[in-house]
Write a structure and sequence with these properties.
The structure holds two protein chains of two kinds. In chain A, 39% of the residues lie in helices and 19% in strands. By secondary structure, chain A is α/β, with parallel strands linked by helices. Chain A has a domain of 219 residues: 3-Layer(aba) Sandwich (Rossmann fold), CATH 3.40.50.720. In chain A, strands 3-2-1-4-5-7-11 form a seven-stranded parallel beta sheet, with helices on both faces. In chain A, strands 8-10-12 form a three-stranded mixed beta sheet. In chain A, helix 1 links the parallel strand 1 and strand 2. The longest helix of chain A has 20 residues. The N and C termini of chain A lie far apart (39 Å). In chain B, the strands form two sheets. A seven-stranded mixed beta sheet of chain B has the order 1-9-6-2-5-3-4, with helices on both faces. Chain B has a two-stranded antiparallel ribbon with strand order 7-8. Chain B has a single domain, classed as 3-Layer(aba) Sandwich (Glycerol-3-phosphate (1)-acyltransferase). The longest helix of chain B is centred in the C-terminal third of the chain and has 24 residues. Chain B is globular and about 50 Å long. Helices cover 32% and strands 15% of the residues of chain B. Chain B has seven helices and nine strands; from the N terminus they run H-E-E-H-E-H-E-H-E-H-E-H-E-E-E-H. The two termini of chain B are 16 Å apart. The chains are: A alpha/beta, B alpha/beta. Chains A and B meet through strand 6 and strand 12 of A and helix 3, strand 4 and helix 4 of B.
Amino acid sequence: MNVLVTGATTPWGRAVVEHLLAAPQVGHVLAVGAEHVGTGLPSDGPRFHYAQADLTRPRAVRDLLYGPARSCGIDRVLHGALHRAAGDRGDRIHAINVEATRLLVQGCVRQPEIRRFVLRSGGEVYAPRADEPNLIDEDHALVFDPGAPQWLRDRVEADLLTCAQIASPDLAICVLRCAEVLGPGTGSQLWDYLGSRVCLRPLGFDPMINVLSVDDALDAVVHALRSDARGVFNIPGFDTLPLSGLIALAGRRDVAVPGPLLAPLYRLRTRTVGFEFRYDLNLGRFHTGGILDGERARAALGYQPRHPARCLAAALAA
Amino acid sequence: MPMTMTLRPAAELRGFHDAGHGFDVFGLHPPTLRRTLALGGRLCDRYFRTRSHGAENIPADGPAILVANHGGALPIDAALVVLDVDRATGRIVRPIADRFIPALPLISTWFARTGAVVGTRANVAHLLGRGELIAIWPEGAAGIAKPARDRYQMRTWQVGHAELAIRHRAPVIPVAILGSEEAWPVLGRIRAFHRFGAPFLPLPALPFPLPIRHAIHYGAPIALHDGLGPGAADDPCVIAHAASRVRLALAALLADARQTRAGRLW
């Protein structure tokens, strides 16, 4: 299989490219980024090519799919180029998150050589509900709150407009709703949260949290690209533990604070220190938790989490 | 049989599925459950003097559903069943809790650590799918805070347990709990209290439960799925009929148990 990877210049994108190039079943990798030069990516060679494209522009997407993608024999597309900074907002961010996804998936539906489209979405699209905690399957309610931050609304919109094309007869579309990837540069809210020496959590609540290691996320992507299964699949990680346990694993100090104080405290922290963690984005899971049920991915894609995030947390502690 | 046997160590808890850090995906933590059972065991033996009958009806393994009557200002009956089943069989019981529980600070965490699970479809399907023993109180929150005149009368009866039993082909064991509906009489319900999503706040007549002698009777397992196809779990008539079978079985078990009961206080 020959794979086109969007968002290739991000740390996650670079990891995907490396992983795909190491996989024997992958022939050619076409990495796509917004930058002119693919910094940190391998040099162009017989199995790898880098292309610069602004995916928010229809012409650029068409040129990409009928130009470099066709000449590289691309038959599978992995789209994961979503804006990572939770605090950023505006039309440009919306275009990167939503319009680019719309243009790309519609372009792939029309391009006859592309047979597979995989969107890397996230478990954050599920609406956390106090009366439906614990296991979250693929039919769980999504966030449709107009007051939700743009970071979240954009992700739900991108996820849903991809889902809207799932019935396309010639393109097998797969949406991976991944648990949070605990790793640097992945846009992980939890990674940023654990970056602080003191981690505040709501008094009286210690929900179960599931985290996905980068290695398992990469495995899930390869399983999804290799398979022809259509639909939405939850991708949970290996580690499920209480929030207090995760904080302890990272070697941080756990301080329980009355819930209403947490949002203003973390807002103050963002303004003064500049961290990305936003409590309003995490309020639901920090109170009631929510673990993605990966049964469908196990049955249809053959994905099973195997890599504990323990070592990552230890790296963070170091 | 009196409940005065020793508690099993945490390592011997059967049916625990470690999610990798000593907790299962629902938050059950065996050492916390052990400590809670050890503390509750003393109260159960000395204060409520609970006796257990028919525990041999509980399957040694595989999915099963305990269905019991509910009463009292607080769910003491649920704690007694968890303790009794642990002592009799070593199996962990997963009490199915009402949906407002996760919103309660401290209580939500304590319930989760001791095995309670909120009764969503995905949660219960997961538990039964991996062969766990669950306990359901079909009277729901309405069972708690029943007026004294309604004790041992099952006024409300939700049918979800019957659907689950048929869908997952799990036997239902009726459980009659004597004592809990008398130990902590309730004066009424404060319906205006909806904090944390609770349907009401029970107003107990006493600040603590009376030392009423408790008894737990396990009835013969009922295979609701016998003779039914896989589509039967979606048929409301089948479900309603199956649920009423369980209700009648439990009512008969309660009536028998009350007749053979020694005494309330002594």
